[in-house]
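Example S7 (structure tokens).
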């Protein structure tokens, strides 16, 4: 049984990325995986202040809801991150969570003065993203951001599901193939 954390990155409840992530997590649950859900829109997560307070200990000095997220992420075998695309990137809510992953990066290194090599085989990360436009490079920034977030966590980025031309709330319901693709995402 894998420990799977689903990170809902949309500021809009019940939107397309929520529906797709629900479908993906249902697929995981059907395999018997242990599922935890994180709704970033409901959390108080400050942006990284760049204070370097986490550099020695690997623990962020900002006291907010991120402490609970660090614990969930530390225990996860698989993370499925979802975000609508805003200006060719992830939402600001997701970006705040990702930036606060710096503490976890330091923790994996053993602190600022450590010479320890980082093990990047701890788990797997996936991204589900939806964009209203059909631009050629619509998902490139989000993919790079996710790749380096998962790398900081010691996880491999395994790709994900990316859907263009879906905008209005719930419109993904008109695309059963998209919901099925998300459902099957973690079954690999």
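Recovered sequence:
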């Amino acid at each position: 049984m894998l420990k799977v954390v689903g990170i809902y990155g949309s500021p809009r409840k019940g939107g397309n990325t929520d529906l797709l992530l629900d479908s993906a997590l249902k697929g995981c649950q059907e395999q018997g995986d242990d599922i935890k859900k994180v709704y970033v829109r409901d959390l108080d997560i400050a942006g990284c202040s760049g204070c370097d307070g986490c550099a020695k200990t690997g623990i962020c000095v900002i006291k907010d809801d991120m402490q609970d997220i660090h614990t969930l992420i530390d225990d996860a075998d698989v993370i499925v991150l979802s975000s609508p695309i805003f200006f060719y990137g992830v939402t600001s809510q997701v970006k705040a969570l990702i930036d606060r992953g710096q503490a976890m990066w330091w923790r994996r290194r053993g602190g600022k003065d450590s010479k320890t090599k980082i093990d990047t085989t701890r788990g797997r990360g996936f991204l589900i993203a939806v964009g209203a436009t059909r631009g050629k490079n619509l998902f490139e920034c989000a993919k790079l951001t996710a790749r380096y977030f998962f790398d900081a966590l010691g996880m491999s980025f395994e790709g994900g599901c990316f859907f263009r031309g879906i905008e209005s709330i719930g419109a993904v319901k008109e695309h059963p193939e998209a919901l099925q693709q998300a459902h099957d995402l973690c079954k690999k």
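Notes on this example. The mean pLDDT is 92.
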